[in-house]
């Protein structure tokens, strides 16, 4: 049982600030840190910390960030044999987190933008040992489609986190996805109407299923998640916690879901694990530093009596 994550690896340049500046405005921040991140790498670390053998496929740059990002993945026991070093700079994310724990993010893809055919070949070598492939949209869409095709052919479950929110997805991608996990903004963007509660999430799920995806999980933050699968619709309530930083909460959810499914859990049990892991992550600062270990997750579930 193992998880493969095909996607982005970024260094997050994080400023904490009382509020996000308005266009044209300069404000003084409270603190600055460089923190390993990137949606793909965060999801890989989330799954690996929960104890699942996890492999990362992607690229870092030939700069000091690249080496630190690779070391960070390896320290969390993420396999990096398929992480190559590109001649360009590592992907970076400029992140502002305000006092209300809201964030704004600018991504400069760097090496992530070069992901392509050689990375698909590395992925194909890993697929025979995998149960689940996790994809996001911070590497070129053509590579995402090729990765999904390869996984489908190998009989591996494909989970797509459609983030950052796409303007649209090509029709050929939908039937290649087993599970899609948009947040409300991403779901709204995909279906063309606003998604803001359980009812609109269900409507969005129905549209995405009509396009060929078996299971839709719409993440609604504090409102939990709604799941549509095999004719069933059910809610997964969020665990109530005091959030200080929501960066990577969605990644943690996806990593927890993939780890659960690869370990043979039912969809409901894997979603519970995903929700609990995400709840822990929002109580801590930063992307990868916020992701819980198996022991921390078990302790949390014992404490909340779930
Ligand atoms: O989902 C959070 C991540 O988005 C950050 O770690 C940042 O790198 C961006 O990719």
Task: Give an account of the 3D structure.
The radius of gyration is 18 Å and the shape is globular. The strands form two sheets. Strands 5-4-1-8-9-10-11-12-13 form a nine-stranded mixed sheet, with helices on both faces. Strands 3-2-6-7 form a four-stranded mixed sheet. Strand 4, helix 2 and strand 5 form a beta-alpha-beta unit. The chain has 306 residues and is an alpha/beta fold. The chain has helices spanning 39-49, 64-75, 117-126, 141-153, 184-191, 198-210, 249-262, 267-281, 294-304, and strands spanning 3-6, 10-16, 31-37, 54-61, 78-86, 91-97, 103-108, 132-135, 157-160, 179-180, 215-219, 225-229, 232-236. Helices cover 35% and strands 24% of the residues. It has nine helices and 13 strands. The structure holds alpha-D-ribofuranose.
Ordered list of secondary-structure elements with their pairings:
Elements: E1 3-6, E2 10-16, E3 31-37, H1 39-49, E4 54-61, H2 64-75, E5 78-86, E6 91-97, E7 103-108, H3 117-126, E8 132-135, H4 141-153, E9 157-160, E10 179-180, H5 184-191, H6 198-210, E11 215-219, E12 225-229, E13 232-236, H7 249-262, H8 267-281, H9 294-304
Parallel strand pairs: 1-4, 1-8, 2-6, 4-5, 8-9, 9-10, 10-11
Antiparallel strand pairs: 2-3, 6-7, 11-12, 12-13
Helix pairs in contact: 1-7, 3-4, 5-6, 7-8, 8-9
Bound molecules: alpha-D-ribofuranose.
Alpha-D-ribofuranose binds next to strand 2, helix 1, strand 7 and helix 7.
């Amino acid at each position: 049982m193992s998880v493969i994550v095909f996607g982005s690896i970024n260094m997050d340049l994080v400023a904490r600030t009382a509020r996000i500046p308005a266009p044209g405005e300069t404000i003084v921040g409270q603190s600055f840190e460089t923190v390993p991140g990137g949606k793909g790498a965060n999801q890989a670390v989330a799954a690996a910390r929960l104890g699942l053998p996890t492999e990362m496929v992607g690229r870092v740059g030939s700069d000091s960030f690249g080496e630190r990002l690779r070391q960070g993945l390896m320290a969390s026991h993420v396999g990096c044999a398929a992480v190559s070093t590109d001649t360009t700079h590592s992907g970076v994310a400029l992140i502002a987190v305000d006092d209300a724990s809201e964030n704004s993010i600018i991504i400069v893809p760097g090496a992530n933008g070069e992901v392509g055919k050689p990375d698909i070949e590395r992925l194909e070598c890993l697929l025979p040992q995998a149960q689940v492939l996790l994809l996001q949209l911070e590497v070129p869409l053509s590579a995402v489609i090729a990765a999904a095709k390869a996984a489908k052919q190998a009989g591996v479950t494909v989970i797509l986190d459609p983030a950052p929110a796409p303007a649209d997805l090509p029709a050929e991608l939908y039937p290649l996805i087993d599970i899609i996990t948009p947040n409300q903004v991403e779901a709204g963007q995909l279906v063309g109407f606003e998604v803001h509660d359980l009812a609109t999430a269900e409507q969005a799920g129905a549209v995405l299923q009509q396009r060929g995806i078996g299971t839709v999980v719409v993440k609604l933050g504090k409102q939990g998640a709604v799941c549509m699968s095999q004719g069933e619709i059910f809610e997964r309530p969020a665990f109530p916690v005091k959030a200080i930083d929501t960066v990577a909460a969605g990644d943690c959810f996806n990593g927890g879901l993939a780890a659960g499914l690869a370990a043979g859990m039912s969809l409901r049990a894997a979603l519970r694990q995903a929700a609990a892991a995400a709840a822990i992550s929002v109580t801590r600062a930063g992307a990868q530093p916020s992701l819980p270990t198996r022991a921390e997750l078990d302790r949390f579930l014992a404490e909340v009596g779930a």
